Amino acid sequence: MQNDAVLKAHGIKPSLTRMMIFDYLNAAKHHPNVEEIYQALQPKIPTLSKTTVYNTLHLFTEKRVARAVMLKDQENRYDLASHPHAHFQCTKCGKVEDVFRLPDIHLDQALPKHSVHDVSVLISGVCAECQKDEPLI
Amino acid sequence: MQNDAVLKAHGIKPSLTRMMIFDYLNAAKHHPNVEEIYQALQPKIPTLSKTTVYNTLHLFTEKRVARAVMLKDQENRYDLASHPHAHFQCTKCGKVEDVFRLPDIHLDQALPKHSVHDVSVLISGVCAECQKDEPLI
DNA sequence: CTATAAAATTGTAATGATTACAAACATTTA
DNA sequence: TAAATGTTTGTAATCATTACAATTTTATAG
Ligand SMILES: [Mn+2]
Ligand SMILES: [Mn+2]
Ligand SMILES: [Zn+2]
Ligand SMILES: [Zn+2]
To answer: Which among B7, B39, B52 is positioned nearest to B26, based on CA atoms?
Structure first.
């Protein structure tokens, strides 16, 4: 499916700016924040405003095209909502990795009378690389 | 175990301020934020500074006495780290509920070379109460 | 093709949580 | 007691996010 079709399918009119922000999220693997998206696209869209980046990401999040990844930082980072997955953040180097292989979490028994819309899982610890650096204490 | 013993056991000197913040977290069931803790304790500790609340919560978090609960709000809320559990936040009324009955998540296979320190699970949706208000669409 | 309405984008100014930092105060140690 | 260390405080920055009105662009109607 083309990118503009993805936006249309979610009820979003595919303006140039919106498509470029979608493309950037699609290509980025590292969960960019607003500042990074703005800095990356501003050369290509010289009139781009940071407010538009905020507006667009809010729209994407509301229409479930993207989701905000809330890490231990105090800034939101963004991810396309395509495949649900968890995130691992290394406390040493700050790197964020996608974690796709998580066991299904069945919430029916735990929350029988609730309507669950979203589950976000954030794992923190030390990544494989940083383990090597300090193997023994 | 007494509260001061809990702090000592985590390598924290139990000053009066620290014990009162610990007590407040222990009694509070609703994951208070810094402002609320400050407002609640300021009458009892007239010289209390909000910076001290921040300092103390950072100390508690570092020493694993408490943990920061990051919700969709843009402010941190705090919880004693006693029993690991997930959180459910209602998108209608904003209420936050503890969710203790979650299946164990075994990360060994998913992250074999990582050292996992913490897993935080945030579930969002509509709570039982708010379901009743708008049952049909 | 215009005129009008609606939607999208922009720039600037607030907001508000958090942090930085140095001074003041309290406690421990020698 | 004196010095060192640890704790608390107040004020001033920082910085991500939001509010909001103006401007520009796009869609719709005549
Ligand atoms: Mn991801
Ligand atoms: Mn809790
Ligand atoms: Zn690492
Ligand atoms: Zn509710």
So the answer is: B7
User: Can you read off the two tokens belonging to residue B66?
Assistant: 């408490």
Choose among A110, A107, A106, A118: nearest CA to B90. A118
Give CATH for domain A3-131.
1.10.10.10
d(CA B105, CA B77): 24
CB distance A120 to A79 below 8 Å: no
d(Cα B2, Cα B12) in Å, to the nearest integer?
Answer: 14
What's the pLDDT at B112?
A: 84
Q: How far is the CA of A97 from the centre of ligand 1 (A)?
A: 7
The shortest CB-CB distance from A110 to any of B99, B105, B118 is to B99
* B87 → chain A, closest CA residue: A119
Q: In angstroms, what is the C-alpha Rg of chain A? A: 17
pLDDT per residue over A30-59, tens digit each? Answer: 899 999 999 999 999 999 999 999 999 999
Q: CB-based contacts with strand D under 7 Å?
A: A 13, 15-16, 33-35, 50-51, 54, 58, 74-76; B 12-13, 15-18, 45, 47-52, 55-56, 74
Q: Where are the domains of chain A?
A: 3-131
